[in-house]
Amino acid sequence: MITHTGGCHCGRVRFEVLAPAKLEVSECNCSICGKAGYLHLVVPADRFKLLSGGDALKTYTFNTHTAKHLFCSTCGIKSFYVPRSHPDGFSVNARCLDRGTVSDLSIRPFNGREWEKQYPEGRGEYPQ
Ligand SMILES: [Zn+2]
Residue 126: helix, strand or coil by DSSP? Predict the structure, then answer.
């Protein structure tokens, strides 16, 4: 595990996340991720730290309102959020990580259009 840093486009929102250098992320095709091209790196809360920009974040919710879609009120970028599958953790957008620490990025498709079939228990596990 190493520390990656990242943030939004304008730089108000900055965070660090503890994850392997070789990342496995998922590309979701649901109504919101598909439009944004979001690449999910899901981590437990204790591996994520918001460094700045808490006051810049706006929250968007829809459908079950479980997921908290957090975006920067200045630049509009969603660099991380609280996913419906892991409401006690975070999903970091791998596209928003700073260059230099990710040695390999493998992208796995995720069928979020049938979310309930993917998560019959109503939530997901954390990858190791
Ligand atoms: Zn911003």
Answer: coil
CA of 97 to the centre of ligand 1 (A): 14
Let me know the angle formed at the C-alpha of 3 by 38 and 118, rounded to the nearest 5 degrees.
35
Q: Strand pairing partners for 60?
A: 69
Single pTM value for the model = 0.93
CB 59 within 8 A of CB 72: no
Q: How far is the CA of 58 from the centre of ligand 1 (A)?
A: 11
Condensed to tens digits (0 to 9), the pLDDT of residues 71-84 reads: 999 999 999 999 99
121: left (phi over 0), alpha (psi -120 to 50) or beta: alpha
Q: Please give the Cα distance from 91 to 10 (Å, whole number).
A: 20
- Mark the residues whose beta carbon lies below 5 A from ion ligand 1: 8, 10, 12, 72, 74-75
Record the tokens describing residue 73, joined without a space.
Answer: 């009120």
Scanning the structure block, which residue is given the tokens 């437990």? 44
